[in-house]
Design a protein that fits this description.
Layout lengths: L10 E10 L2 H12 L2 E5 L3 E6 L2 E8 L12 E9 L2 H14 L5 E4 L3 E7 L5 E7 L7 E2 L2 E2 L4 E2 L2 H5 L15 E8 L3 H11 L3 E6 L2 E5 L7 E4 L15 E9 L1 H7 L11 E4 L5 E6 L1
Parallel strand pairs: 1-4, 5-8, 12-15, 16-18
Antiparallel strand pairs: 1-16, 2-3, 3-4, 5-12, 6-7, 6-11, 7-8, 9-10, 13-14, 14-15, 17-18
Pfam families: Glyoxalase (PF00903)
Protein name: Glyoxalase
Organism: Aureimonas ureilytica
Length: 277
Amino acid sequence: MSLDASPATTLTMGRVTLTVHDLDRVVAFYEEAVGLHLLRRDAASAELGVGNHVLLELRHDPTARRRSMREAGLFHTAFLLPSRTALANWTREVMRRQTPVAGASDHAVSEAIYLSDPEGNGVEVYADRPRDQWRWENGAVAMTTDALDVEDLLAASDGAPWTGVPEESSVGHVHLQVGALDEAEAFYAGRLGLDVTCRYPGAIFFAADGYHHHLATNIWNSRKAGTRAFPSTGLSELEIHVAPARAAGIGAGGESDTQTPLTLADPWGTRIALLVR
């Protein structure tokens, strides 16, 4: 598996890092409910993902302030499965385990099911529809929030035994809570150079390379939120892998590599590590 889907891909999402109080319980959730594979674990942290690729890092800090759901930070981490069949197989496993589900939506560009981890971090597991089915007009993609036809999705399962998420899975996008949409747009479009792909009541979606969204920001729970106070539970950092040309435009330069990231912070203190690939 390669993070570089094609030479034309200039941006992909990397690992998401969360700070947690109960490392054992949260690791178990991402292994059992989400299906990530445990790649490394010690008393202080754990890395989960697919193959040799870390998608999620959990850092143990029992003394960290517990994050309020009304402050800036993570809305959800969205794990992208490689096919509708994989999403159907995962959904069958969720039903077999009777895992609590927070929602299930048809977004026109994708089908998604939502969970919440034991410490309140949102999780989306989704599969994209084929790109030729996405509808674009004037640079904006049509995304909906309709009820998911679960029975139709389950019919796409091939009945294969569930052994965790397939190796081609990735972090497809990260959705953030912010204090104000205009400031979010100034940073994520203006500073990071992402395209605005959709405006939705209380939310803006951003992407590169014609994707529906790599990042989203909303004020549904966090309107007028101030700068985050660390250490706290929840989102610690997210990685974004960028091609040299895009990195130069952001100001990361072309000489960095994946071992020497440029770390920025959005207006609410959420840390973003840019790694040049």
